[in-house]
Amino acid sequence: MAPQENLNPHSEAHLNGPLFQNALLTFKEAAKIVNCDPNIVERLERPRRCITVSVPVRMDDQSVKVFTGYRVQYNATLGPYKGGIRFHQNVDLPEVVGLAALMTFKNSVLGLPLGGAKGGVCVDPTKLSRAEKQSLTRRYTSEIAHFIGPTKDIPAPDVGTDAQTMAWFMDTYSQEQGGYAQPGVVTGKPVEIGGSLGRNHATGLGVIYICERAMEQKGMKMSGSRVAVQGFGNVGSFAAKFAYDRGARIIAVSDVTGGYFNGDGLNVNDMVEYAKINKSLKGYTKAELITNEQLLELDCDALLPCALEGQIDTHNAERIKAKVIVEGANGPITNAATKILHQRGVFIAPDVIANGGGVIVSYFEWVQDIMSFFWDESDIDNKLKTVILKAFDTVCHFQAEKKVDMRSAAMAVSIQRLEKAMLLRGLYPR
Ligand code: NAD
Which CATH class is domain 202-354? Predict the structure, then answer.
């Protein structure tokens, strides 16, 4: 057989996942815009370290099941690795590589002194008892303990993990360090053991700080505007509530059970209470039922996709009527749809900045843990506003100067910071 040309020099399977490939597309375009050093491009196209571990767990019926866990440390030029841990049945190494890359670019564009990482275990956490979930968390922590620590790599919650999971994580790591409390090893902890006030609502609040600023740029005001929110979990429900408190008319919200519409505006406080009691919005009667697809295409001033990736692609991008879109979720608009919306004059605040509130307050939590000195909630909200708007204004400035779309602008600003730092540090050993 004739030898074939290798079109992809990095053809290892873990680098071929759709999330990572999509991120690389944006990365390569942006690297050209800023004329990034080709040696830096070469280095930034790959993760530094991929750790795969077996996680044996004794189940409640006394049988032992072995799960697979990952921690991908993508880049640590700017500081210790930082990124969440996902417990989900679809977790695999290519997905974790993609998420770790996004964390690297997010932390850079936000101006944080942190590198990028992500972790996960392939498991459906809804099928585990509390005891099984605790055993899984503790053994996973122990398996990666050698690679993490307050100055090395600081995980956080993500899909399927929460403050309780982080408490078990912190306790396991501390026990393995001689029993001394090590709160700085993980963020998103309960406040009682070194968590930060304001962390729970941070991502939703950040989305609204960005939405207000984006509206200002379009000559609009939050108060009296019509806003639609997809997703009513941690990000979506807080984003809806903060917009509502600022006088916006929330004309629709949705969750996995469907969309809920009222052209005169929904009572968000009532819906938050309803969702708390019923675990979802299913059965909520004080609104007209619509589909998630219809919600995305509503005539509104701002659309906040706060649920899943890939919600707006080439099949519906032409029908989107919102003037401003703020990406609360990670990757809700595909690369191709971004181009269509940009050409149509829709303003997109990209995910790496728009949902950065969570990691910014995680950074504050880590700083507070190191100092053992804790701040007021209002202090935290204000510091979050300063950091997120500074990053957003820098990206807007770049976008206006180079006339590119906001996603490319955010990636370009991120690359510039990483490039400068990598050139200054140089390549070890030479
Ligand atoms: P969550 O699990 O709390 O909420 C997700 C919401 O989306 C739920 O209301 C769920 O019902 C809804 N949903 C699920 N499938 C849906 C569908 N097909 N259509 C419409 N709605 C659907 O999760 P979250 O923490 O709010 O995260 C949402 C997104 O924001 C994710 O992309 C996540 O990666 C991203 N994000 C979260 C944070 C954070 O701090 N929580 C930070 C940065 C980014």
Answer: alpha beta
Average pLDDT over residues 70-83: 98
C-beta of residue 360 within 8 angstroms of C-beta of residue 109: no
CA-proximal residue: ligand 1, atom 3 (nearest): 233
The reply to whether ligand 1 has any atom less than 6 angstroms from the CB of 230 is yes
- From the candidates 82, 106, 118, 385, give the one annotated as an active-site residue: 118
Q: Is CATH 3.40.50.10860 what the domain over 15-180 is classified as, yes or no?
A: yes
Domain residue limits, the chain: 15-180, 202-354
- Alpha-carbon span 88 to 162, nearest angstrom: 13
Query: What's the Rg (C-alpha) of the chain?
Result: 21
Lowest mean pLDDT among 156-160, 239-243, 315-319, 351-355: 156-160
Beginning with the edge strand found earlier in the chain, give each strand of the sheet holding 302-305 in spatial order: 288-290, 258-261, 249-255, 226-230, 302-305, 324-326, 347-349
d(CA 143, ligand 1 centre) in Å: 28
Query: What residue owns the CA closest to ligand 1's atom 35?
Result: 329
Cβ atoms of 295 and 227 closer than 8 Å: no
282 catalytically annotated: no
Examine domains 15-180 and 202-354 and report if their fold is the same: yes
